[in-house]
Cation:dicarboxylase symporter family transporter (Candidatus Fimenecus excrementigallinarum), 536 residues
Amino acid sequence: MHTQKTEYVFSAQAIDEASQQTQLFLEQTAADKKSVLRLRLTVETLLLKWQLRFGEDAAFTLRTGSRFGRPYLLLETAGEAFDPTAQADRAGSEDFGEFGERVLANLGLTPTYSYKSGKNQLLFKLQKRKRNPFIGLCIAVSAALLFGFGGLAVLPDALRAGAVESVLTPLYNTFLGVLSAIAGPMIFLSVAWGIYGIGDAATLGRIGKKMILRFLGVTVLITAVSTALFLPFFDLHFSSATAAGSQLGGIFDMILGVFPENIVSPFADGNMMQIILIAAVVGSIMLILGSQTRAVAELIEQVNYIIQFLMELVGSLVPAFIFLVLLRLIWSDSLGVVSTGWKPILLFLLAATVILTGVLGYIAVKKRVSPLLLLRKCFPTFLIALTTASSSAAFGTNVACCEKQLGISGRLTNFGIPLGIVLYAPATAINFLVCALYMAENYQTEVSAAWLLTAVLIVSILTVASPPVPGGALACYTIIFSQLGLPDTALEVVLVLDVLFDFLATGFNMTFLQSELLLQANKMQLLDDKILRKRG
């Protein structure tokens, strides 16, 4: 996608031409027609505000292109500093604040304003068109099976063993090493910046703070309930110390183990609980000091974006890594470990369905609405997310469902849906947990009450803290398995299954989000009961 720069004056005809150029560019990048029309209208509205401010004789520039694969649109005009977005609805600003605006801007839903060298700039950072990951999975699996079984037929055993030992295993270990190197800083930066943003009322806002804390609390609750549902289905190797005192001592040791001996060792050893604690302390200190640490907070935010970009690059290599893992399993005669992969998938579907049914049933009783009507209204969003594994592809349908079918006020959905996509993913937490228990069963890892408590906490925190970027789930698996004492070889099967889990979890996450927003809207008196109960 080449960079294009066009200069206009603020006449009505020029603004219309710029809007048309914007639409043509967006049609190459946006996920759906609704996003194209919404962003075109936003651009036209902002240009008209600049026209009123600077006059029809003033000039502006429209620049489109991509940076590191991410499309962008930049509007620029010379003159005194004037932010046209500052005239937006102040009620929304008070509700969600600066932190919320940054979340929306990073998702490409609102522009970022800046004033540089005497020029006003509005930058739209658009989402990349996401290729269906199922295509990459099919290509990787097909190639691995072709080369794998073809190699079994024509290559000598010694040559295959040498390739596994000298090439495939080192590549596998290198990929995991890169994941581990990025995972620690990614979680540290996300937690530190998140606490700073959540705690500062001026940064986050009134409704935003309540929403995020509730997202975290509900995620922990769903993860704990999932643990209780899963335990009867796994033959786990529980610690021989069954006495209540021994179990309590194990939990106490786990709590003490969260505190590091120094600030360096957690990052060197990859102790994620200690890294999260340090991040929480740093974020809290920045919050207490307020404006004195503003520069540090902005630095952490910017470095966080860099780490997320690196994780996206790693995520783009996932099909190649799946090919590598399957080829390694075939040539080392270990493919049998994949044969029981149906178990975590089936248990995930069972737990997610039971918990979601319980949530929808609670809403149906509380609001006196048919549960089947709720399912029918939420199903289109679920289906789009399920078949594309993309929350962005389902975004337009999600907004329409929440506002026009469920009766949730736009005051809540305008920010709640983007924020929920980033922070609220209970189905992903269920996914992480069932995979951890599945591997603990396979490798007979010693399990105790402290182990289970650690699993619930680390899964819940990572689900909320990790950014929704390609490769983010891979980093989370690495962290979870390391923290729970599961071997690196356990990642081979899970990372292959994760592509399928991605489709399933995305679908369930969207319906969980709609249900949670409905409950929050009801509590905040932002719900229209007539629309919720309306059929057709």
Q: What stands out?
A: The first strand starts at residue 4 and ends at 9. The beta strands are 4-9, 59-67, 70-78, 112-116, 119-125, 237-238, 446-447.
